[in-house]
Amino acid sequence: MRASPPSSANSVGGAIFACEVIHRYGLEYYEAFIPTVIAGTACNFAFRFLLDLPQEAIWTFPPESGLSTIGTLYGVMLGVVGGYLGRLWIQGTIWLRVNVLMKYKLGARHILKGTIGGFLIGLIGAVFPETLFWAQNEAQPLIDGGATPLPNVWPAEGIFGASDLTSPLVLILIGGAKLVAISITVLAGYRGGFIFPFMFAGISFGTAFNMILPSLGAAAAALSLAAAINTSVTRTVLATPVVLITLSGRPDVLPCVLVASVVSLYMTGDVSIIKAARTRYLSSEILGADDLTDNTPADAKPIGKVAQVFKETTAPPAEPKTVEATPPTVVVLGAPRTAAAAPVAVLNVTIGAAEKTVGAGAAQLGNASDAAAKPAGPESEAVKSQQGWLNSQLDGHGSGTGAAPPLRSVPSAKRVSVPAVFQVNAAPMV
């Protein structure tokens, strides 16, 4: 059996892959890249050290020389072909799921589903033994036209005899059979991935195309189609070329492979088979997530640490008003709790996502419904301290306790300097 992928493929390519596969158009959580490289390198070192494995490429392409720079443009054509094949696989797999699994209610019938899937995979393998097993070791016989014996399978011939791996038609049939087998494997619920199987299918198609158009180059054609098919499904536009180039030891064809990968990415932009893939979360979606607990309501939205103190009101706040009142006055969301004759400037205080309006002489910071339901009581030390701070910012308009002193004219919409979570505006005087 051949060696497993070398270190650079596992640590760097694998790290990029892990960061890209969760999105639709490449790596977005760039903060995770270095930690994943460190984790991949440590894992690869431990694995290879314990099993005494060498660091070497696992695929060997025939030597080529004099590759033209213009050959990079072949990646556009190969990317379109690979992207179309990937799109066809996605749509075909979705069609099978809807018209077979869902129609006949096989989703939860795992034993029956697995039995049917296993039979079909075995049938495909009986015709084309090359489609069986992990694909990373089965790809080399396709590359060298059968010079390398097919590993892991005995007998190595199918029910119709040995496959002629020098025939473009046979290679195209093997690639198509592998794509069908991948769909069945996924839908039947079998464990395992489809990364190397997609690469295997791409190598099979690419090798056939190179036999038809030798100017493509064996490595460029095979690796570009492998990258295009895999990228179109997994959306790993950078990781896939890095892994393929490292596995083959052919950095000279990287430009062509990279072009094919980028082109195929946009061939399947409007379809997806990996439903978890999405754009990165916005800050507003994760802000305060660390404050959520097991007792947090399921429909609660994290809004930071302020959410632990101030509750978000579900009803739209009333317009702030200026009222006539005798201090101490408490006005919450425009609804006065006491009223009298003296005009009082009202402040509009935004706390988190809820609006509170308070008189210049007193403040009550709490939920609107609580304020409306409970009688006014003595202010807490925190409220007094906050009111005193507000008054000091307004140049001494009010002392925070007792009757408010006469107020000078305060310009409309005057903004004062406040902590980040508070936004205070002075309302017009009556």
Describe how the helices and strands are arranged.
Blueprint: H1 7-20, H2 33-51, H3 74-102, H4 110-127, H5 139-143, H6 168-187, H7 195-212, H8 218-234, H9 239-248, H10 254-265, H11 283-286, E1 331-332, E2 335-336, E3 346-351, E4 354-359, H12 368-373, H13 381-393, E5 414-415, E6 422-426
Antiparallel strand pairs: 1-2, 3-4, 3-6, 5-6
Could you please describe the fold and organization of this structure?
By secondary structure, the protein is mainly alpha-helical. The chain folds into 2 domains: 7-268, Clc chloride channel (Orthogonal Bundle); 308-426, no CATH class. The chain is 43% helix and 5% strand. The protein has 13 helices and 6 strands. It has helices at residues 7-20, 33-51, 74-102, 110-127, 139-143, 168-187, 195-212, 218-234, 239-248, 254-265, 283-286, 368-373, 381-393, and strands at residues 331-332, 335-336, 346-351, 354-359, 414-415, 422-426. It has a 4-stranded antiparallel sheet, with no helix packed on it. Strand 3 (346-351) and strand 4 form a beta hairpin. Helix 7 (195-212) runs antiparallel to helix 8. The longest helix has 29 residues, at 74-102. 35% of the residues are buried. Residues 1-8, 302-315, 323-377 and 395-430 have low confidence and may be disordered.
